[in-house]
Each structure stands twice: as structure tokens, then as C-alpha cells.
Amino acid sequence: MPRKKKDIHYIYKTTCNITNRYYIGMHSTTKIDDGYMGSGKRLRYSIRKHGEENHKVEILEFYESRVLLIEAEKEAITPDMITDKNCMNLMGGGTGGFTSENAKKGREATDKILIKKYGDNFKSVIVTNYYNSLTDDEKIKRSKKIIKAHKLIGFDYANFKDKKHSEETKNLISEIKRGTGKGKTNSQYGTCWITKDGENKKIKKEVLNIYISQGWEKGRKLK
Description:
Structural class: alpha+beta
Helix content: 40-55%
Radius of gyration: 25 Å
Order of helices and strands: EEHEHHHHHHEEHE
Number of strands: 6
Largest sheet: 3 strands, antiparallel
Number of helices: 8
Strand content: 15-25%
Number of domains: 3
CATH class of the largest domain: Alpha Beta
CATH topology of the largest domain: GIY-YIG endonuclease
Strand order of the largest sheet: 2-1-3
């Protein structure tokens, strides 16, 4: 049975009620209430994190054809909009679900804007800003997801022994870690090593005197 032709075309706006971040997109369908909320990467993450119930969809305008819809999205999603911190769109309008060539052009146009705003190293800057925006718990969960994903594609951490990261990777790691691990943000803050009879133990500094009175010494001995 042939598919029913999608004859409803519109530009929509999906907004997260919790963060006030928004996503602009285009959609063609046969059913106006099909529940579509958008397919952008950041939008999908927002929906997973905050739930569909905390996102609302507004239809901004209808169009008579898919061609007119694509042209309308090009005008709706401007380069300046993409740099707005509340905007979840990653590229200019008219590229999503269109052709690989248009998608490439959209990505290049967006890159030019981001380079102007953040410099040639904009990708590292964006990654660093995103990482710094996470809570400690979110950082731990993110690390676990990355390790799990690596294992699923067959990456063996044990085989990384005696190998080296590329300069680009090392620079990115350095930028991500910059400003973290200092003072109270360091997981080892307020702790110290103690040793006794060949046993090493890490404790909170506030209980150090109790252990000292039991014959422990500050520091540790390597075996």
C-alpha cells in the first residue's frame, strides 16, 4: 500500500519549560497531532533529561509545500540565532533532512560564526564550556557513558599501555581540566596518607590525630 503523501508543512518551535532553551525546526506530516517535537541533537538530550512533559511545541506558520517550507526554515534560523546560548539548533535553517551538500554548507557557515566568536579553537572552547557547566555527578555519569561506549565499539583500555595521545587530544584534555581539581573541587581535598606496619591508608585530615595516637605515621611507604 503506497504511503500517504505528507501534505501538512510547518515551522515549529519547541521550548523547554525548565531551561527556557528552544529549538526551531520544520516538519512535514499527514497528521497534525503526530506528537513530533523535533530531532535536533541538543533537543533530544534536553527531552531525555527533563522529559517530554516539560517541553512545549508551538506551530509558528504553515506552508503549502515542502519546497516553500525549506526556504522558510532558511530564513527562520539565522546565524545570529545559532550563537544564542538559549538556542539548541546546531546549524542554519534548510539543512536538516535536506541534502548532504546543503548540510555541509550550513555547517561551514556555522563554523565561520563560531570561529568569529570563540576563535580557531572554537570546538575545544565549546567542549570546555559544556564540561564546566556540568555538576560533579553529571561529570561522573558522562565519563562512565564514554567508557561504556568505547567498550561497545571494541576499544580496549588495557591495550592503550605504552601508547600516546595525539597532541590535539592532549591539548583538549588539558583545556577541559583547566580550572578543575583545585581546592575543594579536588576529590583529594582535606585528605592525607598514613602508614603503619607496611599498610597505607588515606583518611580525612580532621581524624589524623586519632590515628597518630594509635601508632600510625603521616605519609605512605611504597612497597
